Amino acid sequence: MEGGEKEQLTPATLCSAFLGVLGVGMTVFGALVHWAGILPPEDQGLGMPVLVLGILFYLAHISEALFKSKTSKYLYWIMSETDFQAYVKELQESQPKIKWTIQNYHYEEKRHRDKDGKEHVERKRVNTHSAEAYYDIGGFLDETLSPAQMIAMFHLMYDGEQQDLEANKKKPISRIFLLCEMPLEYHPVDDQEEQRLFDRREAFWRDNTRDTHQDKSTTDLIDCGYKSHVMVILREGTDDSRARPWWMQYWFYAICTIFLMSVPFRCFFFSHCTKIQWEVLKHFSHKNQNSWADDPKHGRANRTDTASKAFRKVKRETPTGNFTEPNVAWDAGKQQLEDVGPPVQVPVGVPSYWKNRDLDKDFDDKINLSADEREKMQKLVDVTYKDKATRDRKSDGMPTRLVVTQVVRMEDSKMWRRFEQKRAELALKGRPKLMAEMPGSGAFKTSPSDSDAAELPSCLKELTVDLNEAYLFHGSCPGGALGIGEDGFDMSRVGTNVGTMFGAGAYMAEASSKSDEYATEDPSGLFAGKFALLLCRTLLGNMFYITESNIPRIEDALATGKFQTVLGDREAAVDTYREFVVFDEAQIYPEYDVEIFSTDPLARPENLLDGNVCAHDEELLGTLCYKKCSLLTDGKAPVRLSAFSCAKSKGFEDFFRGKIGLLVPCEGYDVSGDEAGHGCPHKPGTCLVNEEFSLGKCYKRCDELTDGQFPHRTSANTCCKTKNFLECIEPTESTFSFNYNVGGGDGSLAKSHSPNAKFTELGQ
Question: What residue intervals traverse the membrane (predicted)?
Answer without folding.
Answer: 12-36, 48-67, 250-271
